[in-house]
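Example with several molecule types.
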Amino acid sequence: AQKITQTQPGMFVQEKEAVTLDCTYDTSDPSYGLFWYKQPSSGEMIFLIYQGSYDQQNATEGRYSLNFQKARKSANLVISASQLGDSAMYFCAMSRTSGGYNKLIFGAGTRLAVHP
Amino acid sequence: DAMVIQNPRYQVTQFGKPVTLSCSQTLNHNVMYWYQQKSSQAPKLLFHYYDKDFNNEADTPDNFQSRRPNTSFCFLDIRSPGLGDAAMYLCATSRGHPTEAFFGQGTRLTVV
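Resulting structure tokens for the full complex:
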């Protein structure tokens, strides 16, 4: 069965510092995708970054980068130069194949607090 | 402009009174998902549509139903809401093999 694990319930970081949020996954599918979402207190899920299992290079989107280590089955999110507005819940998610369709399943999330 | 729109943003319903939540999209994505998210928990997939094909998660209660009359709209029906159904309900869309999935702003359901 596919599974996403986020072992850090909460993280603190100083403004302008970098922070790494951990995500490990388990799947037997050769083809899968890994996602990170940000959920502020208002509740909407904001897409941050995507990594495909066959992508050779780590994905980057502005201040966000995904440290993809396929052999270790990890897909950690790195946020550089943290800002106060980065304080939110962060979810790692994986797309999996079921009956030919891809479904998105989520980890438990990590709450990030950015301190001035 | 919002691409996935959920209405209403906040819904209060009485215990046992049927309620419908709606989701619309302008992305023409063929997959639409409904998630339930309780406080401080991960979103839990209830079901999804691939075009008109309905896919129910094994542990989704029978109390929850869904309709997708066309590509743009999808509805979540809760036939007899219980106190335990109070949650944020999130609608999302993607292509069949997603490289990203877009979420609406969610509907926060309160059961009184």
